[in-house]
Design a protein that fits this description.
The protein has 164 residues and is mainly α. It has one domain. 80% of the residues lie in helices and 0% in strands. Helix 1 packs across helix 6.
């Protein structure tokens, strides 16, 4: 259960960060980023898997399948924050990255930059609840595409996230 919570937190953080970046850099830059990191919103780093061309095509199909749903949830998540909160979060993310922070440390720095109301927290929880089954399904479909050796590479990443 803790791993699911950690993965969801990461997914939502990526969603919010991606949405904020998209707002500033435009839709093309946003689409380009996700093309470079398919399924990142599902807590998956496909770069480490050394995919075959056939697997890459299947991962691209998965990304296309889930992109509309995830984009809608990103928009919902972004709409929860005020303009001032989005600006504070963006500035905190930039400063944390410039300070060399990554992973949980980056997430914590960004999260600390914005104080959410109870209502905003509740709304975020609702969006997370919507995203969870989508991310789980996408991850299961990805796992079915991978060889046992590639699947083994995912397991250490999941354990590392759980430890954070």
């Amino acid at each position: 259960m803790r791993m699911v919570t950690t993965v969801l937190t990461l997914v939502v953080s990526l969603a919010v960060a991606g949405s904020l970046r998209a707002a500033d850099e435009g839709k093309k830059a946003h689409e380009g980023k996700h093309a470079q990191r398919p399924l990142a919103w599902a807590g998956v780093n496909v770069d480490q898997l050394k995919l075959t061309d056939d697997q890459k095509a299947k991962v691209a199909d998965l990304q296309k399948e889930y992109a509309p749903q995830v984009a809608d949830l990103y928009k919902k998540m972004q709409s929860i924050l005020t303009d001032d909160q989005r600006k504070a979060r963006q500035e905190a993310e930039k400063a944390a990255k410039e300070a060399g922070k990554t992973g949980k440390e980056l997430h914590d720095a960004v999260a600390a930059a914005v104080t959410l109301t109870d209502e905003q927290k509740a709304k975020q929880g609702e969006v997370k609840a919507e995203l969870a089954p989508i991310a789980k399904e996408a991850r299961e479909k990805l796992t079915a595409i991978l060889t046992p050796e590639q699947q083994a590479l995912l397991k250490p990443a999941k354990k590392a996230k759980k430890a954070e």
